[in-house]
Design a protein that fits this description.
It is a single chain. This protein is an alpha+beta fold. It folds into two domains: 60-354, Catalase HpII,  Chain A, domain 1, CATH 2.40.180.10; 426-482, Hemocyanin, N-terminal domain, CATH 1.20.1370. The chain is built from 14 helices and ten strands. A hairpin with a 5-residue loop joins strand 6 and strand 7. It is globular. The structure holds NADPH dihydro-nicotinamide-adenine-dinucleotide phosphate. NADPH dihydro-nicotinamide-adenine-dinucleotide phosphate is lined by residues 133, 180, 183, 185, 195, 217, 219, 284-288, 427, 430-431, 435-436, 440.
Length: 489
């Protein structure tokens, strides 16, 4: 067996370190001297070793893998990474809770982030989704208030169920997502056992210029498995890092988890006359209207070598769209397009996209330059456009923005454009009545009662019962009985 020789410690400049144990002092009992540069460097670096944690999705874990195309979708998109059956694209995935901070327990009731970075041959494509197909609010201007209501009270620094139910019951558009959150899907057994959804409506355009509205669904090959509320609480006490550990250990053992990507495809013209607004993030598209078609598979088969470098510093942004893929008029998506890049600029720095975990696998030919920690640069490339000295030139044909018709109107703050059957409670009611099993409904009612029964004021509780009665009268009744209150007629 080869002899293991530990390397000599160095400082950050690579110079051999004087000691792993003793600082430089005047005699054995004397003071430490300021010119012990090695000690000073250790203290200074330690004091700076955290970047700000994410305001949301702070606690997570991630893994590398690949995406492989299994179906010819070239009739729907010209995206190069989807151009050929069998084509593989490296990816990085990060899963997370939403409201908890770093160190929070993995199994608490919360949606789970499902963020993907595809390192395609046309630059990075990021799909920054959740494990639910819908969301609590439909307008980006309510997002910050929503998150504040799920985080901590300003005075006590404690989380508050009263604050959560106060916000939800005053925001009826939350009903669909809260129904899923309060079901056992709010406590997935592992990250491997949950689906991922792009959630928003996105768009694709094919080589002929034909456009489609798209919903992305990643279906777990491991099968959906959830925890009951009491199982989730027991695991939180035993092993707060349960989900992070589960993913890492399975991949380390060679048990690579897999998901099947399916899309729902809506012809562009359908959107205007569809019976509800298809860009509303609180709604799904029923499968009977737009059946899902398989596109490919995603496999996670390699753990990060370093958590901080690859998971903590990973920066995803739904603005990262490659040719052939695009946005939709979803108001939450539009807010997120700005928000993600902005938060990484603050959290990691203006050159966060130069870090290996974020860097595209293609050449970058940008006119952005310099800023702290600039590493990649374009040498003596001209720093302005247009120029006559060989700098890059935008090719609008290559990157055509995937637009849509916007009817004229006066600038103002409007409620979402109404379609015939827009309502806040319908799909939540369908889920409860037509999709859930009897056991699912019982767990849902119990989970609501358990959560709303914990330090929620009487005035808010009355609204809680009215809220669930509007989702489903029988469910509202169970919640009222469970909370020892009467149900409104
Ligand atoms: P379908 O019967 O065709 O689809 C129902 C879908 O619900 C399933 O495909 C499954 O999707 C998901 N599901 C199954 N059990 C549960 C559960 N206990 N909690 C949450 N979701 C569950 O009907 P529709 O397409 O008409 O949708 C009916 C309702 O199903 C919707 O109002 C929505 O609440 C829910 N749903 C619909 C989805 C869609 O994209 N159409 C996606 C997810 C939920 P999956 O395998 O993706 O989990």
């Amino acid at each position: 067996m080869a002899e293991v020789t530990d390397p000599a410690t160095t400082n950050d400049s690579g110079v051999p370190a004087p000691s792993d144990e003793y600082s430089l002092t005047v005699g054995a009992g004397g003071p430490t001297v300021l010119h012990d540069h090695y000690l000073v460097q250790k203290i200074q670096h330690f004091n700076r070793e955290r970047v700000p944690e994410r305001v949301v999705h702070a606690k997570g874990g991630g893994a590398h893998g690949f995406f492989e195309v299994t179906t010819d979708v070239t009739g729907l998109t010209k995206a190069s990474f989807l151009a050929k059956v069998g084509k593989r694209t490296p990816i990085f995935a990060r899963f997370s809770t939403v409201a908890g901070e770093q160190g929070y327990a993995d199994t608490v009731r919360d949606p789970r982030g499902f963020a993907l970075k595809f390192y395609t041959d046309q630059g990075n494509f990021d799909l920054v989704g959740n494990n639910t197909p819908v969301f609590f609010v439909r307008d980006a201007s309510k997002f910050q208030d929503f998150i504040h209501s799920q985080k901590r009270m300003p005075d006590t620094g404690l989380r508050s169920n009263d604050m959560q139910w106060d916000f939800w019951t005053l925001s009826p558009e939350s009903a669909h997502q809260v129904t899923i959150l309060m079901s056992d899907r709010g406590t997935p057994r592992t990250w491997r056992n949950m689906n991922g959804y792009g959630s928003h409506t996105f768009s694709w355009v094919n080589a002929g210029g034909e456009r489609f509205w798209i919903k992305y669904h990643f279906k777990t090959a491991q099968g959906i498995e959830n925890l009951t509320s009491s199982e989730a609480k027991a695991i939180a006490a035993e092993d707060p890092d349960f989900h992070r550990r589960d993913l890492f250990e399975h991949i380390a053992r060679g048990e690579a988890p897999e998901w099947r990507l399916e899309v729902q495809v809506m012809p562009f013209a359908d959107a205007e006359s569809y019976h509800f607004n298809p860009f509303d993030l609180t709604k799904v598209w029923p499968h009977r209207d737009y059946p899902a078609i398989e596109v490919g598979r995603m496999v996670l088969d390699r753990n990060p070598e370093n958590f901080f470098a690859e998971v903590e510093q990973a920066g995803f942004s739904p603005a990262n769209l490659v040719p052939g893929t695009g946005l939709s008029p979803d108001r939450m998506l539009m807010g997120r397009i700005f928000s993600y890049h902005d938060t990484h600029l603050h959290r990691i720095g203006p050159n966060y996209e130069q870090l290996p975990i974020n860097a595209p696998k293609v050449q970058v030919h940008s006119y952005n330059k310099d800023a702290p920690m600039a590493y990649h640069h374009a040498g003596k490339q001209p720093v302005y456009a247009p120029n006559s000295y060989g700098g890059p030139r935008a090719d609008p044909e290559l990157a055509a923005d995937l637009g849509w018709h916007v009817p004229g109107g006066d600038l103002g703050r409007y409620a979402q454009e109404l379609h015939a059957e827009d309502d806040d409670f319908g799909q939540a009611g369908t889920l409860v009545r037509d999709v859930m099993s009897g056991a699912d409904r019982e767990h849902l009612a119990n989970n609501i009662v358990e959560h709303a029964g914990d330090h929620v004021s009487d005035a808010v509780l009355d609204r809680v019962i009215a809220y669930w009665t509007q989702v489903d009268r029988a469910l509202g009744h169970r919640v009222a009985v469970g909370l020892g209150k009467s149900q409104p007629t």
